[in-house]
């Protein structure tokens, strides 16, 4: 059973990230169909996900389309009760649902002033009263969730849940714009940036088409504050140590070099997403560790 998910640019579409995490982070197979925001690609794609007007949109194996990330979370949770979308404890589950609902409807200053852009990180960002109020509310909610559910952190209601998936784009905004938050909130941000599913999403985002000018800010930049990837680069020539692509099993045609080793892939995308963050990909990591 594989789900079909319509998404926008991985670097910028926060709602797409949420929708994808609700599948990948919980071990559910997903086939993505992407289109660039602010182009005719998006409405063209969504014709296959009618009556959706925005991303994410999920098509179930029977053809039914589920709109909006909250509905996607609930539908997946009902279909896969053992996947862990919501906490098993009723008290923690109520808190997690409350968190997801407020994230879905609120934080307007944070959304408008700090749109998601996981390709860059800035040294500083101006924080006005409206943005400060959203950050204060975030601190209140995250502290309340941990205190109410007894979660030791970094996740909000115990093990990683849909509530955490909903706040993943908020964590990226804090990382991108160097927003001032408490040490406990920073620990949650660090956990999000290190999450295996998020690392794979960001690796794809780094090679997912050209920059969108709308998201550019003229602030001094700093290195991305997440885990430093294994250094790697694309190369045109060399002798790969593998004959088949670690992802598809097809013959290799494109090469990556890292620490004196050459690894082959079946196409440019397989190579480039790996160059962006090699050890985010389990198949590559297994190949890398085998020698």
Overall outline: globular
Tell me the number of helical segments per DSSP (H or I, 4 or more residues long). Answer: 11
Helix content: 40-55%
Strand order of the largest sheet: 2-1-3-4
- The radius of gyration over CA amounts to 19 Å
Give the percentage of residues in beta strands: 5-15%
Find the CATH topology of the largest domain.
Glutathione S-transferase Yfyf (Class Pi), Chain A, domain 2
InterPro entries: Glutathione-S-Trfase_C_sf (IPR036282), Glutathione_S-Trfase_N (IPR004045), Thioredoxin-like_sf (IPR036249)
Pfam family, one: GST_N_2
Protein name: Glutathione S-transferase
Domain GST N-terminal: 3-84
Which structural traits does this protein have?
Glutathione S-transferase Yfyf (Class Pi), Chain A, domain 2, Glutaredoxin, 11% strand, alpha+beta, 3 domains, 11 helices, single chain, 291 residues, 3-stranded antiparallel β-sheet, 4-stranded mixed β-sheet
């Amino acid at each position: 059973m594989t789900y079909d998910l319509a998404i926008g640019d991985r670097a910028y579409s926060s709602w797409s990230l949420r929708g994808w995490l609700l599948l990948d982070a919980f071990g559910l197979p997903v086939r993505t169909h992407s289109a660039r925001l602010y182009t005719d690609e998006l409405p063209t794609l969504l014709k296959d996900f009618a009556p959706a007007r925005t991303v994410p949109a999920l098509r179930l194996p029977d053809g039914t389309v589920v709109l909006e990330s909250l509905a996607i979370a609930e539908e997946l949770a009902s279909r896969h009760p053992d996947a862990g979308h919501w906490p098993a404890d009723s008290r923690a589950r109520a808190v997690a649902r409350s968190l997801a609902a407020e994230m879905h409807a609120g934080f307007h200053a944070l959304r408008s002033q700090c749109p998601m852009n996981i390709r860059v990180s800035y040294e500083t960002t101006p924080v006005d009263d409206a943005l400060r109020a959203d950050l204060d509310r975030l601190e209140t909610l995250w502290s309340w969730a941990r205190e109410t559910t007894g979660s030791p952190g970094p996740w909000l209601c115990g093990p990683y849940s849909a509530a955490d998936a909903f706040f993943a784009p908020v964590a990226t905004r804090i990382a991108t714009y160097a927003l001032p938050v408490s040490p406990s909130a920073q620990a949650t941000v660090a956990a999000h940036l290190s999450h295996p599913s998020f690392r794979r999403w960001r690796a794809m985002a780094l090679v997912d088409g050209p920059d969108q000018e709308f998201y550019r800010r003229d602030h001094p930049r700093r290195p991305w504050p997440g885990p430093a990837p294994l250094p790697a680069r694309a190369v045109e020539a060399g002798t790969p140590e593998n004959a088949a692509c670690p992802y598809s099993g097809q013959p290799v045609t494109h090469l990556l070099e890292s620490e004196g080793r050459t690894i082959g892939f079946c196409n440019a995308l397989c190579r480039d997403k790996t160059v962006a963050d090699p050890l985010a990909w389990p198949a590559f990591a297994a190949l890398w560790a085998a020698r």
